[in-house]
Amino acid sequence: MKSSFTLLLIIALNISVFSQVAHNRNADTFAEWTDVISYYQKANSLNDTEASHFSYAGTFGYMLLAEYGGTIRAIEKTDLEYFNKLLSSFFGQDAKGLFKHEVLLNTPEGPIYLPIQESLITYWKQELKKGDQMAVRIRAYGALKKDNDTKWFFGINSYGSDEYEYLWETALESLNQGRKENGLNCIYKLMELDPTDGRNHAVIAYNYYSEGFPDNRELMLKSDSVFEISQKLSPDHGYHYYQRALVKIRLEEYKAAWSNIEMARKLGVPKEEFYEPIMQELEEALPYKQYLSDKKK
């Protein structure tokens, strides 16, 4: 029942659709394989149709989810020679030797072998086995046309063996850095992977609060509704209650604000996390002693 209710909420708020991928040099731009492959197929088609070698000067970065196909192999000699030339053109001669092997990833676009940095190979072998779901951070350097197929030189520079937590950490990192679009795209994917994790709903709710601060009532009401869901799904996360209290203050629902503050305290949110000017505003609107007195009636 929880999953169905949450899914309906997502649809109602129109947050299940990813924003268009912003191709850029950031290392962790979240994207779907279809978006990345189609982007570079189009880039290749804009070149001479007889060309077989492609170089992507932007060296854009992406974070993608995949299944490990269980195979690590040496990059073919002729492919490696071209790849090293690409790397040298971007980074100089010292870049040679960064990549010697490639790993098999199962993706919605089919199985793909991608080069992986040599420094990651030992950890990869220790942490991953065939069939594991994981996240990779890649950079797009170039491609080769081979026998009516395309050999992609998307170098793997980092990975996460736990795709969900890696995606969650990337979402928070992006939001903290002010890259809201990427952060929210990660959150939307997390909601798709696990509709019952209230943390994701809380991020969406807080985004509505931030956009609506201080007096956009429509956005505050949206925020409040999504926080209600986050609390039902993850009732033991104290920060959801503190953040919802902020919304309740803006809605002038001061009793509800104190109630959420009490729950946040009960669930262990440290005293220093309660922003003093906000707490003072609430105290002036409804003194805590009066709230406690009214609650006893």
Structure, explained:
With 297 residues, the chain is of the alpha+beta class. The chain has 2 domains: 23-164, OB fold (Dihydrolipoamide Acetyltransferase, E2P) (Beta Barrel); 197-296, Serine Threonine Protein Phosphatase 5, Tetratricopeptide repeat (Alpha Horseshoe). It contains 12 helices and 6 strands. The protein has helices spanning 2-13, 33-45, 77-91, 121-127, 163-176, 180-193, 198-212, 217-233, 238-250, 254-266, 276-285, 288-296; strands at residues 53-55, 61-74, 99-107, 110-117, 133-146, 149-160. Strands 1, 2, 3, 4, 5 and 6 form a 6-stranded antiparallel β-sheet that branches. Helix 5 packs antiparallel against helix 6 and helix 7 (198-212) runs parallel beside helix 9 (238-250). Keywords: Signal. Residues 1-24 form the signal peptide.
- String of helices and strands: HHEEHEEHEEHHHHHHHH
Q: Work out the radius of gyration.
A: 24 Å
Helix share, percent:
40-55%
Distance between the termini: 36 Å
> What is the CATH class of the largest domain?
Mainly Beta
Largest sheet: 6 strands, antiparallel
Number of domains: 2
- Count of helix runs: 12
Strand proportion, as a percent range, falls in 15-25%
> CATH homologous superfamily of the largest domain?
Nucleic acid-binding proteins
Map the helices and strands:
Elements: H1 2-13, H2 33-45, E1 53-55, E2 61-74, H3 77-91, E3 99-107, E4 110-117, H4 121-127, E5 133-146, E6 149-160, H5 163-176, H6 180-193, H7 198-212, H8 217-233, H9 238-250, H10 254-266, H11 276-285, H12 288-296
Antiparallel strand pairs: 1-5, 2-3, 2-5, 3-4, 5-6
Helix pairs in contact: 1-8, 5-6, 6-7, 7-8, 7-9, 8-9, 9-10
